[in-house]
Amino acid sequence: MSPRAGLDTHTLVIAAADIADEQGIEAVTLAALAAKLGVRSPSLYNHINGLQGLRTLLAIYGLEQLYTMMSAAVEGVSGDIAVHAMSQAYVDFARSRPGLYETTLRAPELENVPLELAGNLILSLMIHALKAYDLGEEGELHAIRGLRSILHGFTSLEHKGGFGMPLDANISLSRLISTFIAGIGNMKDVGKG
Amino acid sequence: MSPRAGLDTHTLVIAAADIADEQGIEAVTLAALAAKLGVRSPSLYNHINGLQGLRTLLAIYGLEQLYTMMSAAVEGVSGDIAVHAMSQAYVDFARSRPGLYETTLRAPELENVPLELAGNLILSLMIHALKAYDLGEEGELHAIRGLRSILHGFTSLEHKGGFGMPLDANISLSRLISTFIAGIGNMKDVGKG
DNA sequence: AATATAAACTAATGTAATTAGTTTTGCAAT
DNA sequence: ATTGCAAAACTAATTACATTAGTTTATATT
């Protein structure tokens, strides 16, 4: 299987995502990836720009997958239902692809155009869903920050086993989103500073 | 300075926390720590249980410091004010000691008694602050999860530069907490499932 | 002063990322 | 079909780090 393994960038990213999901993000090394693909690690450099490059590609891939899930979830719904659906999709994605999700947060290069693009897609999805609440320009931005904080924080804590109690996490999430929506008037530009 | 540098475990942890804050958590290596302390890296093993042991100690130290700040913040206040104050203290701590804060989340050993203890102190502080809202037993647990998600998520996103917009983050936080409090009735056991 | 212990050291091993330089393959153009 | 080239794989070597084993040395206690 040695000569011409027929690799390409996408194959590497898929395989690396698998490793991340199965063995954790720490296990995503070029050595492990090369072994999984039946190749020596320097060969990977023909397709990716080192470990850092791979991590950036993983982040982009993860964001794209996340966007796909969230986008499907809000298809044809709006208002509170859309916010709940989007949130549930976010958390479900992180649960089903824990390693891949984590790569979206450890992106080494902040100024990577495709990475920013993928992030902006998700952002615009959230913005669209929050339009229903008439928060004003700044209010909307604060609300986005809030929702992102909630989703990322919840996901992150759940992943690291931070929710020790035997209490249904989906209920926790659902109530948290309901809480957020119920109080969302506090995000408005007027009436609060 | 070679013979008998006079190190001890606490000195190592302090120095490692400095590295984490100044150069990021990735820079916390035994090699770097040893260099900073004027010692060869194997010498560190007299005081810590390898890199993993150091990380656990860092996490404990970070949680203790965080607890100290939060605890001071709620001194003598209660209700909404306490929740706001505690939240602000949490975020301020993460801002002032970004590396140390991050170590509290990457704890390798989940079943470490002192680590759990330090975490439980913070938890009990939150529980106490939320007593004011009469949420019931389960409601309280869901609310704790919610507040932790918010604080960790907000902190984490801010740290990674996720809040691109030129919009005051303290206002975002304040509104998020107000939103949470305003809707907290949704955490109650009755009236929602 | 003698000694035991703990703290430092040197030396060595294993893993990983990365670079340089080489071989080989497959396709494209003749 | 043959030639030639670019890409994809390789080997070899370097660097950095964690870790272990075994040695030396300082210091506190007797």
From TrEMBL, chains A, B:
GO terms for molecular function: DNA binding. Residues 15-47 form the HTH tetR-type domain. InterPro entries: Homeodomain-like_sf, HTH_TetR, MT1864/Rv1816-like_C, Tet_transcr_reg_TetR-rel_C_sf. Residues 83-179 form the HTH-type transcriptional regulator MT1864/Rv1816-like C-terminal domain. Keywords: DNA-binding, Transcription, Transcription regulation. Pfam families: TetR_C_33, TetR_N. It comes from the Bacteria. This is TetR family transcriptional regulator. It comes from Paenibacillus monticola. The lineage of its organism: Bacteria, Bacillati, Bacillota, Bacilli, Bacillales.
